[in-house]
Amino acid sequence: MKINELAAVIFSMFIVKFLYDAPIDAVFILPIFFIGFYLLFKLSPTYDYSSLFSTSLFVLILAFFFFSRPTFTIGILILMVVFLFYNYPIFLFKKGFKCYTENDFKGALRYYDKALAFYKKVKPISINVLNEPIYMLLFFNKGEALFTIGNYEGALNYFNKALNIHNDNGDVWNNKGLTLEMLNRDDEAIMAYDNAINYDSDNDLYYCNKGTVLKKLNRNDESLDCFNKALKINPENKNALKAKKELN
C-alpha cells in the first residue's frame, strides 16, 4: 500500500467523523471499506492506482451508505467479493506473465499452476464465473513456459488443452507445430502449421515455419513455395530471405 493510499484512509476517517459526526468506533469501519476497494482494483485486469481524491470519495460514499443503509452496503461488499472471485485467475495469470517476460520461467509456472488449480476447484461446482478465454491463455502460456525450459512433452500437452477450448487460434497451432518439430514429429508439425495458416493466412511466420520443416525433409519445392508466400506477406522476413537464398 502506497503512502498516498494510506493518507486517503486517514483523510476519509476524519472527514466522516467531523462532517457526519459519526461515533469514533464506527469510523474505524472505514479501513475495511478501503481494503475492499484496494483489493477490488488491485486484482482487476484494468487496475490502476487511483488518486487521493477518488479513493477518498469512494470510501466516503461507502461510509455514508453504511451509516444510513447498512444492508445496502453489505450487498455492495458481497458484489465486490464476487468480482474478486471472478478475477482471481486473471490476477494470477498476469503475475505469471510478468514472471515470464522477466525470464523467471519457474515463477511463471508457479502462478499458472495456481490459476489452473483454481479452475479445477471451481469447474465441478458449475458456477458461471469461468472466463474460458483466460483459461485458454493459461494453457497456452504454460505451454510456452514449458517449451522454453525444454519440457516439450509437457508443452505439447498444454497446447492441446488450449486447443480443446479454442481450436481456431493460429498462434496455438503454430506453437504446437514448433513443439512437434522439437520432438522430431515433422509430419505432425506440418499439419499443425497447416491449421495455423488455415485460421490466419496473413501471418508470414506460419508459412516460414512450415517452409523450414519442409526444407529439413528435402521437400524443396514445397518449402520454396512457403517462403515465397511468407515474403509476399512480409518482404523483410529475414529467415525466409535466408532460406530462399539457400534453396536457389
UniProtKB/TrEMBL annotation:
Keywords: Membrane, Repeat, TPR repeat, Transmembrane, Transmembrane helix. TPR repeats lie at residues 136-169, 170-203, 204-237. It holds the Pfam family TPR_2. InterPro entries: TPR-like_helical_dom_sf, TPR_2, TPR_rpt, Ycf3/AcsC/BcsC/TPR_MFPF. The chain crosses the membrane at residues 22-41, 48-67, 73-93. PANTHER family: CELLULOSE SYNTHASE OPERON PROTEIN C, TPR REPEAT-CONTAINING PROTEIN MJ0263. This is Tetratricopeptide repeat protein. It comes from the Archaea. The keyword Transport does not apply.
